[in-house]
Specification:
Chain A is an alpha+beta fold and 382 residues long. In chain C, helix 3 crosses helix 5, helix 3 runs parallel beside helix 8 and helix 5 packs across helix 7. The chains are: A alpha+beta (382), B alpha/beta (244), C mainly alpha (219).
Chain lengths: 382, 244, 219
């Protein structure tokens, strides 16, 4: 069990975070400069918080009041640096055994061979880091950190230096590797997919604060605030006003019209009529009303608008639809993802005016920005 | 590797320090003492180490603890100062010679020069020892002042560390003339004219054994040798006037 | 006149000793300046560079005051029976003072270039600060440290003004090569002066050439 509560000021930036995690992989997710790497360094003892406390499995690593600060040498944590920080003057094997000073030569060799083998690096044992590819270097860094058998592994942007296809493959390998070798890990990343695939728990950082902490699915399903939703890369985030509740659906009044969305059970008491709220719509769930087919009978959440922007994303197209509002002066932009096939099939390159329908379940309510986001700066989450 | 090479070299003289007599001597004694010292060594069977320099510099070093056993100055006042500061062994102060200054040029060059000629265009630069700390330099300045040309010659004067260096400047051709001691001017390359004794303070040269010396008896022997028959003969040959 | 080899061997001995002292004291200092921020750091950096730009006679004078028997340092040593001024020890001190700054600057530069992340990695792997320095930092900075040592050695070999003031030019005791050459010139023994000078130039040239070749050929 990792318990962390620290404050640190560096120049104009101030870090003030507190979270805990049990035996699992935790991702510290957020934009660059949010304080994630700094947290990791404090965990490892490479940076010293101004105040607070860090403990792992009951063992206190740092306590400002108790004047405890265990030096990094004795924390016995594995650390995989961004950029890997492999020793350029040592061979792969020597890099891997660097942390095994206190063991016999035989044991070191055995352990190195075991790890190198498992990571597919056996043939490279005598090479120098400069001769290796990015993916190989990453694995060596991993092997080196794992060799001393640490209870906790810290990884700083482990995949950011790799190109897309390699990244995808290593993401899977990494997840499996971490779980088979260590009891727990903390991964710092600004990549959403990395966080989602590697972690059990996600802690969202924003400008030195934790804005949401929780299990992976929970965070993605229920972002605690508009801010978190944006950080998680959600698009089509809008503000609106709650209306009446009918048949389990709440109506939302919005500059683009009136929408109906299922009412999440946790929010029944909070959504009184007239209450302001934030919601988002997943772009892939917005359906264009096909002009070559008969119109659906009871279209739900029907909106009309004009395509004002088209971006070719390769496999898909990202469209922006300007939705006509109740008043002519107001327009909202709706982002829609369509596959390439559909794009050309429906002649979206030329035809501008379109209607769309949105499944109620595709509209997700975000917690009222006024109330505290669940999981932020609090100790334990279910 | 490099260490072994260095260890193989001649051992530092420190090993034989107990036997070696260190003699600080004014530059004007360079030629004379280079003859006297080996003779003393042969007679007494002990090594002599000569260190030459301008009197002022030598005295300064002695004041800071330089390991001299005896110091031969080029005047009296420096020795008197040492005595009054308690650095000289009591009773060891003696007059051992009087020196003369000469105006020297390279023999191949100009005809024999008089002091007055220094003003002329044929002499672009000439050297004297630094009057601040070399008694012979002081005497040169006094002689030029007597002649009334000291101020006018300022732009042409080059100060040397001591008269040995002044002579070297002349020999190297860096200066056209130099005022040096008679005792060092006896060189085939050099032509000189004597400068009148009246024009400067007498260059009475005194010696003292240093109180800090660990070889006072030996130092006394050396002084005696210089003042003895052999010493006097050599000193006279180099143009010094020796006391009766 | 037979060649006198004493000044050369004295100079070599003095330079080797001075360089050893320089590296032993300068390396920790260079590391401190490269890695740590602390109040008074600017003062320390200035103090290191100062001897390189001050006139040798100024340095020599203050050093003499310091180490002569009446001075604070000299007096201390005198009480335990060790003479400093006008001995070979003074020559070593003079050479050390004159060349120390060169080494520290070169070593500091090299150490600063070592990525501190590598040192951090070594720490997380359980290595003591000492091990981090010997196994990671120094091996990656050895070229600068070596170059600094050689330059410092050459400078020690050639010191004149400071040595003259604190050690004097006592033949066969403290008269190093540069002082001996000067003495020969003063005595108009130009052939001898020339011979000695060529030896020094040759030696230093070989050293510097060797360093640049060796350090560049490797990797």
């Amino acid at each position: 069990m990792l318990e962390l509560s620290i404050r640190k000021a560096v120049g104009n930036f101030s870090l003030d975070v507190a979270w805990t995690s049990r035996e699992e992989v935790v991702a510290l997710f957020g934009a660059s400069g949010a304080g994630k790497s700094l947290t990791l360094q404090c965990l490892a003892g490479l940076a010293r918080p101004d105040s607070g406390r860090i403990s792992l499995d009951g063992r206190v690593l740092f306590d400002h009041q108790g004047r405890i600060n265990v030096p990094p040498q004795r924390r016995h944590l594995g650390y995989v640096f961004q950029g890997y920080a492999l020793f350029p003057h040592l061979t792969v094997e020597d890099n891997v055994t660097f942390g095994l000073a206190k063991r016999s030569d035989l044991e070191r060799h055995r352990r190195a061979a075991e790890l190198l083998d498992r990571l597919g690096l056996a043939a490279l044992a005598k090479r120098k880091p400069a001769e290796l590819s990015g993916g190989q270097q990453q694995r060596v860094a991993l092997a080196r950190a794992l060799a001393p058998d640490p209870p906790l592994l810290l990884l700083d942007e482990p995949l950011s230096a790799l190109d897309a296809p390699l990244r995808r493959q290593l993401r899977e390998d990494l997840g499996a590797l971490i779980r088979s070798y260590v009891r727990a890990a903390v991964v710092v990343t600004h990549d959403l997919t990395d966080a989602f695939q590697l972690a059990d728990r996600i802690i969202v950082y924003d400008r030195g604060r934790v804005v949401q902490a929780g299990l992976r699915e929970e965070v993605f399903a229920n972002p605690a605030s508009e801010q978190v939703a944006r950080l998680l890369g959600f698009r089509n985030v809008f503000r609106g006003r709650a209306g009446s509740v009918e048949a389990g659906l709440v109506s939302i009044t919005w500059p683009g019209g009136v929408l109906r969305s299922p009412l999440p059970p946790t929010q029944t008491d909070r959504l009184t009529a007239g209450r302001e709220l934030t919601f988002f719509i997943r772009p892939e769930h917005i359906r264009l009303v096909r002009k070559d087919r008969p119109r659906p009978l009871n279209p739900i959440n029907l909106l009309a608008g004009r395509i004002v922007d088209r971006v070719d994303m390769g496999a898909t197209f990202a469209l922006r639809l300007a939705v006509e509002g109740e008043r002519d002066s107001e327009t909202e932009l709706l982002e829609i993802d369509v596959s390439r096939l559909v794009y050309y099939l429906l002649r979206l390159d030329r035809d501008e005016l379109w209607e769309v329908t949105i499944q109620p379940s595709a509209i997700q309510l975000v917690a009222d920005p006024g109330s505290p986001a669940p999981g932020s700066n609090c100790k334990i989450l279910t | 590797m490099a260490l072994a090479l260095i260890a193989a070299g001649p051992a530092p003289a420190a090993a034989s320090a107990t036997d070696t007599l260190t003699v600080f001597a004014a530059s004007d004694l360079a030629l004379a003492f280079t003859e006297i010292a080996p003779r003393f060594e042969r007679v007494h069977g002990t090594a002599v180490r000569l260190v030459f320099g301008s009197t002022g510099n030598l005295v300064l070093q002695v004041r800071h603890g330089a390991p001299a056993d005896v110091i031969f100055a080029a005047n009296i006042s420096f020795i008197d100062q040492l005595a009054s500061d308690g650095l000289a062994a009591p009773g060891s102060r003696r007059l051992y010679a009087r020196g003369r200054i000469v105006l020297a040029t390279k023999s191949a060059a100009l005809r024999a020069l008089q002091l007055r000629d220094l003003v002329g265009p044929a002499i672009r630069r000439f050297a004297i020892a630094n009057p601040e700390h070399a008694p012979y330099g002081m005497a040169a300045k006094q002689a030029l002042e007597s002649e009334g040309i000291w101020d006018r010659l300022q732009p042409k004067i080059v100060f040397a560390e001591n008269i040995r260096q002044a002579l070297q400047f002349l020999q190297a051709g860096a200066v056209d003339a130099a005022i040096v001691a008679l005792s060092v001017a006896k060189d085939p390359e050099v032509r000189y004219t004597l400068i009148e004794e009246k024009s400067h303070q007498p260059l009475d040269q005194a010696v003292a054994v240093l109180k800090s010396s660990k070889r006072r008896a030996l130092a006394g022997d050396f002084v005696a040798f210089v003042l003895g028959a052999t010493g006097r003969e050599i000193m006279t040959r180099y143009g010094f006037i020796v006391p009766k | 006149m037979t060649a006198d080899w004493f000044p050369l061997f004295l100079s070599l001995r003095v330079a080797v000793l001075a360089t050893l002292v320089t590296v032993a004291t300068g390396l920790p200092l260079a590391w401190l300046l490269a890695r740590r921020r602390f109040p008074g750091r600017g003062v320390l950096e200035t103090a290191v560079v100062l001897p390189l730009v001050l006139p040798p006679t100024v340095l020599g004078y203050y050093l003499l005051v310091l180490i002569s028997r009446g001075g604070p340092l000299g007096g201390l040593f005198d009480r335990i029976g060790i003479e400093l001024a006008f001995t070979w020890r003074a020559a070593v001190i003079a050479a050390w003072v004159g060349s120390y700054g060169m080494f520290v600057k070169a070593a500091q530069g090299g150490l600063e270039l070592v990525d501190s992340k590598l040192e951090q990695a070594a720490r997380t792997l359980g290595r003591s600060e000492w091990s981090v320095f010997w196994l990671v930092t120094l091996p990656l900075a050895w070229r600068s440290v070596l170059a600094g040592s050689i330059v410092s050695f050459c400078r020690s070999l050639g010191d004149f003004g400071i040595t003259l003031m604190v050690a004097g030019s006592i033949p066969h005791l403290t008269q190093t090569m540069p002082l001996a050459i000067y003495d020969r010139v003063q005595a108009n023994q130009l052939a001898e002066a020339n011979r000695m000078s060529l030896v020094v130039v040759g030696l230093v040239s070989i050293l510097l050439l060797g360093v640049s070749r060796f350090a560049r050929v490797r990797l």
